[in-house]
Amino acid sequence: MASPPQDALRAPAFIRRLFSHFPLITHPVDLPPMSIEDFQLLSTNTTTRQHTEKSINNNTLYSFTDSTDSSIASFNPTCLKWQTYLKIRNIPFKTQSSNNHASPSGSLPFLVISSQSDRISQTISSPKLGKWIEEHAVGSVNTVDTDGGDYRAFLSLVEGAIRDAWLYALYIDPTNLSTLTIPKYTAQVSLWPVPQILGSQMRQAAIDAIRKSSTSTSPTGTELYSKAIEAFRALSTLLSSDTWFFGASEAGMFDAEVFAYTHLLLSLEIGGSGRVVVEGLIGFENLVEHEERIRQRWFS
């Protein structure tokens, strides 16, 4: 599920005081030397990518997830995008359920690694993940120019029309908000009335985000779903009969961007008005096949 703005899950003062006594998760950002067994034998103090590939092991991606198994996809598109790209670039890691309160940047995901030689931990926030991956992953055969005009134009469809439709379907549609979104994001916080408060805040944050990105002052679900389907049509035309986007010989960041939404739309039991955009996506066979390729290769 696409992350609303960073303050979307920011609870009122009295709730935050409650969290201070009963935190959702305790994550020591400044870990003492080898204080967690899971971070053994990790290393990022390298001078070459080959050395890095051998020495980095068992990194932990803190994200919105139901499992520590990295082959289980996150239920949040932003987290799933990075989870997928880490897999595409052959970075070994496991996943850990977390929340925005535990993140040093205020949003998920973030990656925690440890240095075997220096016996210290390092936290890579989501804004820095892309650069870190490029510096530490083995070279990629995907050479798509991410600064090119075509790339940016199609990326805007994903981050604009498709994201807005997702936000409406999952955060504003009352059926999905109550049966999918709130239970997923508040699974660790069953104490009443925290789920209800967070649900209301997430819904309002989604409304604000959609209004900010939309040309309409009061966009309707019908309007947003229609734009998302047109965006999927454009992506389907772009992909055509190729295996990966932009004719690349291997999957890349854009493939991860698209998969993050297509996989969740196709795999979650989305009901209510959200079925419109799900059915629209299903109509583009090559996008469905693209989702299946990534899922079978990296999430099975």
From TrEMBL:
GO terms for biological process: mitochondrion organization. Transmembrane segments: none annotated. One of its GO terms (cellular component) is SAM complex. Residues 77-176 form the Thioredoxin-like fold domain. Residues 228-294 form the Metaxin glutathione S-transferase domain. This is Mitochondrial outer membrane protein. The lineage of its organism: Eukaryota, Fungi, Dikarya, Ascomycota, Pezizomycotina.
